[in-house]
Design a protein that fits this description.
The protein is 33% helix and 25% strand. Helix 2 crosses helix 3.
Length: 200
């Protein structure tokens, strides 16, 4: 997968897995990673799917309607890539925190839905429920931060609450941060994520 890796200054810090939104690239979230913790390793990945020339992490059938078969395939592809990247760049595979926005947050959530030890935790900006009707692995010890907008036209508050409930029923520790905003990524929600991670 097309990606970039920046070695951090402090090996004890987690490696951030950056996952962009639809139409983004592996460069999009670098400033956000720096704002959250500028000493951590950064592995930033570009989605392998193109939708009208816009990179994404998996196909969709319509706005808000995921191609479930492709989602499962792409989630496995990303999970396997993370194993290879940890070996290549020599970082602790068990100390990885995803920072995803929109489509990137959805694939990060999907990693947690499908693989018990894929991530240590996640910061999911404006995610949706990746799949319904499946049993999640035991996510005890996983910490998840979800910044969400009360006026998000793409991801309704009920979607966020459902995702929170699914994660919590799998024993994850979930914090939701609400802003009176839409689907955009805001400075204040990134700052809230920074404070949340500093307290972990």
């Amino acid at each position: 997968m097309k990606h970039l890796f920046n070695k951090g200054k402090d090996a004890s810090k987690p490696t951030f897995l950056l996952l962009h939104g639809t139409g983004g690239t592996e460069l999009d979230l670098l400033p956000i990673a720096g704002q959250i913790d500028d000493e951590a390793n950064v592995l930033s990945v570009r989605g392998n799917v193109s939708e009208n020339g816009m990179p994404r992490f998996f196909k969709r059938l319509a706005e808000g309607v995921f191609d479930e078969e492709d989602l499962i395939l792409r989630t496995k592809e990303l999970h396997d890539f993370l194993d290879e990247a940890a070996e290549k760049y020599e970082f602790d595979r068990d100390n990885m925190i995803a920072i995803g926005y929109s489509n990137g947050a959805n694939i990060a959530a999907s990693l947690l839905f499908h693989y018990q030890n894929s991530l240590k935790g996640a910061i999911l900006h404006h995610p949706m429920v990746p799949r319904r009707g499946i049993e999640l692995p035991d996510l005890s010890g996983k910490t998840i931060f979800i910044p969400a907008g009360t006026n998000d036209p793409i991801c309704a508050p009920s979607e966020t609450e459902e995702l929170q409930s699914l994660f919590e029923s799998a024993n994850a520790n979930v914090t939701v941060h609400w802003e009176d905003r839409g689907h955009q990524l805001t400075y204040s929600e990134v700052d809230a994520a920074r404070k949340w991670l500093a307290n972990q």
